[in-house]
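Researcher: Let's try something more involved. This one mixes different molecule types, so please make sure each is placed in the same coordinate frame as the others.
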Amino acid sequence: MTYQLFYWPQIQGRGEFVRLALEAAGASYRDVAREDGVPAMMAVMRDPALAHRPFAPPFLRHEGLIVAQTANILLYLGPSLGLAPKDKGGRLFAHQLQLTIADLVDEAHDTHHPIDVSLYYEDQKPEATRRAKAFREDRIPKYLGYFEGVLAANPAGPQHLVGEGLTCADLSLFQVVEGLRYAFPKAMARLEPSWLHLIALRNRVAALPRVADYLASERRIPFNEGGIFRRYEALDG
Amino acid sequence: MTYQLFYWPQIQGRGEFVRLALEAAGASYRDVAREDGVPAMMAVMRDPALAHRPFAPPFLRHEGLIVAQTANILLYLGPSLGLAPKDKGGRLFAHQLQLTIADLVDEAHDTHHPIDVSLYYEDQKPEATRRAKAFREDRIPKYLGYFEGVLAANPAGPQHLVGEGLTCADLSLFQVVEGLRYAFPKAMARLEPSWLHLIALRNRVAALPRVADYLASERRIPFNEGGIFRRYEALDG
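Model: All components are placed in one shared frame. Result:
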């Protein structure tokens, strides 16, 4: 049965981690708000009769279930899409990595919104400049150095984060590198030489035929300043 | 087999969500860093031979597995402790709520550290004051109003977040209310009348015999200004 993904239609945002998994698996899905508009998404999310309601997009509808929270959606999708480890320990570890990626994504978001999500970046620019500096200098190296270490320590080899097959976590880590390159090109150019396994993984994911097709298609929304990863001159360095 | 929990010994922090689940279930566990010291925890976490390595505490060791990320630990523990729904849809929804609680906890943390986690609160006090205002006025009502709505919409009744039994999400939501009351007593006193089901759930959890025993014991570390929920006069109002 076709998956129905509900997410904001004009940004990659958190929905992109789900889109990438569906695309990499060649799954049949509808990106509902892009096809039918945002009101169609809000009508589902705000249905007062809905017991399992989302706090926010993205959410997925499939076989009578509504599943929200990016990492939870990928936990649900992984086994069906062939993008989850088969053993229990591997699945828990893949989900752990997915949650660590979610933490990194939250921190990337807060570089441009350190004070108040309801205000514009321009209303919190001095604070954003200060937070982005700490993010570039301390947090990016800590997180990506961690993932480099996870790849190096994988008993099955550094081709994947967990075990010997592609998982949602690999795809999400690709997206994180793409996003950080977009938002912080100078910082990433300086830092990337430290992460050989990570960049090799990024390149392998980009070259997967279905992923490459997707990235070249109109389905891939370009990065922009409405999303999580935003390019503001003052925040890079 | 006894669970081994690894977390900072002087704060409730994120580890408290795990401690509460273990205590509420009457599980046998060791709080390793409290019993053996922080070096014992760091030795496990930084073991270069460890493939499934944590990014940060808390983590759990059990039956040869190391599991990190608070929500992932509870995903692992829930079924064994009798604190997870039995049906697939219920389990996914409980985990979704757990992840939404994690987002709220992150935002509560950032009220005192909006700029840089490696600096003191005192080094980012004006920014913290501004962020805390937005948190009190917009974010707390949005999150706790959401959980109130989830309780009201539970087809099994508003006694629990999911289905008709106690889950880790109920326990964690209790902890969130306790933490917010500690950190923002004035704001919470003003807001709480809006959340009848939520406060009733908080009271039922507090009265569970094992939870009440735990809260009255020395095992419950008092809230303090090293944890996530901190009481700073300037941040409440």
